[in-house]
Specification:
Chain A has helices spanning about 15-35, 40-60, 60-85, 100-120, 140-150, 160-180. Chain A has about 180 residues and is an all-alpha fold. Classes of the chains: A mainly alpha (about 180), B mainly alpha (about 100).
């Protein structure tokens, strides 16, 4: 990182912090896909989400950090835990965890990882080593300006924001209709 | 110590993405398959925020909020389908959900 860019900024985001968070995220990600008990997998996923939230904080994205905490670790994981409670886990925790095709799937996924890494290493010139400092104090304000518009004008993403609210409405209706016994 | 660059974040995100893909392809429990999809969406979010930091503008962060909205909608509908299916068939295993298979 260019020290001139970072001048006057306290070095909170140290490399060691990054490695701890990244290691925690990947380790609990492995736990998510290998635990037999679905509740344990959900708890491991919460640890992954919190570590990724820490990485957002290191990337100067406090609003995305808050959204990650409230919506993912709060809302979505609560939904998952409720559904795990509703469907019985006693039977499925005694059965096989993986399906018959798991060696093929594992090989294909490892090939995908190799593809990603080779693309990143080969395209290293496309990803410059610079990190532009984002203004942390006005982050939420700027995101609000892009989503809702400012000074009476529509923002860049106002229309997409309205479409997203429509998507959420459709999802709510779909979830309610599908879980009702008789409509 | 090597300073942390965009490359490091991309490698972490790729690892999370591949873990999610492995979970989707191999697990038999539908709830864990849906959790793996959340893992994939999180990897994409991490990429978007890392690139937002690299270019110094906030479009990536706004995109990652839209991805979060999609994840919430997907989780709600997916778990709704799961509950409706569990009520009818008493199973949540992927390889027993084969009504549309030929």
């Amino acid at each position: 990182m260019n020290p001139a860019i970072n001048a006057g900024m306290a070095p909170v985001a140290t490399p060691g912090f990054f490695y701890v968070l990244a290691g925690l995220a990947v380790a609990s990600g492995v736990a998510v896909i290998t635990r037999r008990n679905a509740v344990h997998a959900a708890l491991a996923l919460i640890v992954t989400l919190l570590s990724v939230a820490g990485l957002y904080l290191m990337l100067y994205a406090p609003f995305v950090f808050a959204v990650q905490l409230f919506v993912y670790a709060g809302g979505i994981m609560l939904l998952f835990l409720f559904v795990i409670m509703l469907v019985n886990i006693e039977r499925s925790s005694k059965e096989r965890r993986f399906n018959r095709m798991w060696p093929v799937a594992l090989a294909a996924s490892c090939a995908l990882m190799v593809l990603f890494l080779s693309a990143f290493v080969k395209g290293r010139t496309l990803f410059p080593d610079r990190l532009m400092p984002l203004p942390e104090s006005s982050n939420t304000q700027q995101i609000a300006g892009m989503l809702y518009g400012e000074a009476g004008r529509m923002g860049q993403y106002t229309f997409a924001f309205e479409i997203a609210s429509l998507l959420l409405l459709v999802a709510i209706l779909g979830a309610v209709i599908m879980t009702k016994k008789k409509i | 110590m090597v300073p942390i660059t965009t490359f490091h974040y991309l490698v972490v995100a790729a690892a999370l993405f591949v873990l999610g893909v492995i979970g989707v392809l191999t697990r038999r429990n539908v709830v864990i398959v849906l959790m793996s999809i959340e893992l994939i969406l999180n990897a994409v979010n991490l990429n978007l925020v890392a690139f937002s930091r690299m270019w110094g503008n906030l479009n990536g962060q706004v995109f990652s909020i839209f991805v979060t909205v999609d994840a919430a909608a997907e989780a709600a509908v997916g778990l709704g389908i799961l509950i409706a299916f569990f009520r009818n068939r008493e199973t949540i295993n992927v390889d027993e959900i084969d009504l549309l298979k030929w």
